[in-house]
Write a structure and sequence with these properties.
The protein is an alpha/beta fold and 314 residues long. It has one domain: Alpha-Beta Complex (Spore Coat Polysaccharide Biosynthesis Protein SpsA, Chain A). The chain has eleven helices and ten strands. The protein has helices at 18-31, 50-61, 80-95, 111-122, 163-166, 176-181, 184-189, 192-206, 214-223, 277-286, 294-305; strands spanning 10-14, 35-40, 69-74, 98-103, 106-108, 129-133, 148-151, 159-162, 227-231, 236-238. Strands 3-2-1-4-8-6-9-7 form an eight-stranded mixed beta sheet, with helices on both faces. Strands 5-10 form a two-stranded antiparallel sheet. Helix 1 (18-31) runs parallel beside helix 2 (50-61). The longest helix has 16 residues, at 80-95. The radius of gyration is 19 Å and the shape is globular. The protein starts with 9 loop residues before the first strand and ends in a 9-residue tail after the last helix. Mean pLDDT is 90; it is low at 290-297 and 299-314.
């Protein structure tokens, strides 16, 4: 890998956690992207000390000591963990055709960057592929003979995409009422339990009771027939399980124990584009049914938003 060079833009989404930001920024620094987008949310006025934390985070990510064109999109007001990432990503894809996206709690393996760059090029003109994911939550189950497989689930803990795909993102889920009325999720998921859980999720998003953007991105992929690429090896260590987190406060979660592995090159590409149904069923029954099901996971988010659980941070 010594003769390989990163040429793809990288976007870093940050907020108020200097300790995790420093680790993720160091990984970016080692990769040395030629273009770096910095997206930061502003502090909440009712959170003492948060302005200082946000300032410390911005100081970390502004220490670019390699040849790099830096773009900054720093909000002075708090937009929240739905609007701030999504508007920031809008800005990125208004500027460039493709990019690698990392949030401040998603620590990538060094091979993640090359993996994303090669697949961005390989599937650049393949409209069926909408997302390249760095996360694998199969825990060794459902292996593949290739470097990656195709999935309906576009995990956002370290990912990459193109302007051509992100144009379908709709924060407000405007088409959801028609999808719901015609029961089209059943055609997509073909599982009544999954349909019930995701219907609940999209309902509360439409009702503005859930401050998120990642579920809207999943929805965009589904309703436009898109697929995500999932690596054979997990390439992202999630370091955001902390007591002050918004959605990931359980440090004993099995997903807090995920380790990263090196992606071997050259990549071994599948000679087909067929969704790995068994892997997706495993993901639906474990990752999205965790704690112990999606409805409870979403309801926990809603409790946070309604102020029933006061600790909040990305």
């Amino acid at each position: 890998m010594n003769d390989w060079q990163l040429t793809t833009p990288v976007a870093a989404i940050v907020f108020n956690r200097p300790h995790t930001t420093a680790k993720v920024f160091e990984a970016i620094r080692q990769a040395k992207p030629p273009i770096l987008f910095l997206i930061a949310d502003g502090p909440r006025p009712d959170k003492p000390g948060e302005a200082e934390k946000c300032a410390a985070v911005r100081e970390i990510v502004e220490k670019v000591d390699w040849d790099c064109q830096v773009y900054k999109n720093f909000s002075e007001v708090n937009l929240g963990c739905g609007k701030r990432p999504s508007t920031g990503i809008d800005w990125v894809f208004e500027t460039v055709e493709e990019a690698i996206i990392l949030e401040d709690d998603c620590l990538p393996h060094p091979s993640f960057f090359r993996y994303c760059q090669e697949l961005l090029e390989h599937y650049r003109h393949s409209d069926r592929i909408m997302t390249i994911c760095g996360l694998n939550v199969q825990f060794g189950n459902n292996p593949t003979d290739y470097s990656y497989y195709f999935s309906r689930y576009n995990h956002c803990w370290g990912w990459a995409s193109w302007r051509r795909a992100w144009k379908y993102f709709d924060f407000d889920l405007k088409v959801w009422p028609e999808i719901r009325e015609k029961n089209l999720l059943q055609d997509i998921l073909q599982d009544s339990h999954a349909v019930k859980s995701w219907t609940h999720t999209f309902d509360i998003i439409r009702e503005n009771k859930l401050d998120c953007w990642d579920f809207q991105w999943i929805f965009a992929n589904w309703v436009h027939g898109g697929l995500a690429i999932t690596p054979r090896e997990n390439l992202i260590k999630y370091i955001g399980y902390t007591e002050d987190a918004t959605h990931t406060t359980n440090e004993l979660s099995q997903y807090n124990q995920l380790v990263t592995e090196v992606m071997e090159f050259p990549l071994k590409h599948p000679p087909f584009i067929i969704r790995h149904d068994k892997a997706d069923r495993y993901t639906e029954s474990t990752y999205f049914d965790y704690q112990p099901n999606l409805c409870k996971r979403i309801n926990r988010k809603v409790r946070n938003i309604l102020g029933l659980k006061l600790s909040q941070s990305w």
